[in-house]
Design a protein that fits this description.
It contains 5 helices and no strands. By secondary structure, the protein is mainly α. Helix 1 (27-35) crosses helix 2 (37-43). The protein has helices at 27-35, 37-43, 61-69, 73-76, 83-95.
């Protein structure tokens, strides 16, 4: 319960929103979450979710308590990163992005096998 497979970090800068549910729109938000998981769970702002997912948020105290009760002890203790350290981690994560992956427009074909043109 509450366990998820971790995605690879290659090109992570280009794969927002983050986490299994798309709960965080930026890498900075992810770092803020992991910096102090218990506090982040209690203070999570559901408006960060895409509108189509907001109704799926279970942010009631009982659910948060259940998550925290099963939380890995390594996550239960705040890390305590400074703002500078968080910025450094985000810079590192962005460095894992292949520059060629930033613009893939050259890979869009001009037509499909049937010969029909590809429209934007």
């Amino acid at each position: 319960r509450f366990a998820f497979r971790v995605a690879p970090l290659r090109n992570v800068e280009l794969t927002a929103p983050y986490m299994h549910s798309g709960a965080f729109p930026t890498l900075e938000d992810v770092l803020d979450h992991y910096n102090d998981v218990p506090a982040a769970l209690r203070a999570y702002d559901g408006s960060l979710l895409p509108p189509s997912l907001r109704g799926t948020l279970h942010g009631d105290a009982a659910t948060i308590d259940a998550v925290l009760a099963t939380l890995d002890p390594r996550l239960a203790t705040p890390i305590g990163l400074t703002e500078t350290e968080k910025q450094d981690v985000v810079a590192f994560l962005r460095s894992l992005t292949d520059p060629a992956a930033r613009d893939l427009s050259s890979l869009v074909p001009t037509s499909v096998p049937s010969g029909l043109p590809v429209q934007d």
